[in-house]
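quick one, 142 residues, struct below
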Amino acid sequence: MQYFFSLVLMTFSFMTSAQIDTPAGRWKTIDEDSGEAKSIIEIYASGKQFDGKIAEILTGNTDAVCTECGGKQNNAPILGMQIIDGLEPDAAMSWDGGTILDPQKGATYKLSVWFEADEPDVLYVRGKHWTGLYRTQRWVRE
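---
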């Protein structure tokens, strides 16, 4: 019985630590002004990189299209749209080198994401403009 309990505890510990090994998962975006959940972003492995798409729209028009986007995403539905591309491991608990699209503005930014050790269910997401200006959001694990 003690062996079984140890095995269960070890498995649970592994599963808990594995959650912060990658940014993969479903993340709730939070409006910085209202505190309201806006969408669910699903981040998934794509080879050694990570990509992400809008899996759910929680507020506003769920049939909205990206009128500000260029190229193949122009007038494409925002729901299901890939907004994270090419995110790569950088250091322990951080990823960099990718891009993120803001479908409301049609703008793409350099992307870095990371976890803080004491907040394994919060993903910090930083979009950086070519001018050096940036914005950081806190996404919460769904």
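The beta strands are 25-30, 37-46, 49-57, 82-91, 94-102, 107-116, 119-128, 134-141.
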